[in-house]
Amino acid sequence: MEGKEEDVRLGANRYSERQPIGTAAQGGGADDKDYKEPPPAPLFEAEELTSWSFYRAGIAEFLATFLFLYISVLTVMGVVGNPSGSKCGTVGIQGIAWSFGGMIFVLVYCTAGIS
Q1: Can you give the residue range of the structural domain that contains 113?
Q2: CB-CB contact of 114 with 63 (8 Å)
Q3: Residue 85 lies in a domain
Q4: What's the domain count of the chain?
Q5: pLDDT in 10s for each residue of the chain, 115 residues
Q6: b (16+ CB within 10 A) / e for 26-55
Q7: What is the sign of the dihedral through the CA atoms of 47, 52, 53 and 55?
């Protein structure tokens, strides 16, 4: 048994600086990384401005936003601008909600593959 105790004692004194259990390993500085960080990506590339898909996506976004606002505002105007004051002649608040939700559903479905 004495041989093992001596091996343990020699192994324990092998390193001059000992770290308490649960702390970080020795020699780790702020600049010692296992990887190299890539350079930051540019905001946009010049090649992107010459591609048709870039302009097609912009046109699709513009048309979808325009149609969404047009239908939504017309629905709200139809409810608010009802001259007779009866709730039966308009779609009401629930109709406005259905209009907004339906337009978002349809326009996302139509432009998801483009934009």
Answers
A1: 76-115
A2: no
A3: yes
A4: 1
A5: 566 666 566 665 566 666 566 555 555 555 667 788 889 988 888 898 999 999 999 999 999 999 999 999 999 988 887 777 666 778 888 999 999 999 999 999 999 999 8
A6: eeeeeeeeeeeeeeeeeeeeeeeeeeeeee
A7: positive
Residue of 10, 28, 8 lying closest to 19 (CA atoms): 28
Q: Are 108 and 101 in contact (CB under 8 A)?
A: no
Residue 111 in any domain: the answer is yes
- Give 108-113's long-range contacts (Cβ < 8 A, gap of 24+): 108/64, 110/64, 111/60, 111/61, 111/63, 111/64
> If you search the block for the tokens 């004692």, which residue do you land on?
9
Does residue 29 belong to any structural domain of this protein? Answer: no
CA 33 to chain CA centroid, Å, is 27
CA-based nearest residue to 91, from 105, 104, 81: 81
Report if residue 62 sits inside a domain: no
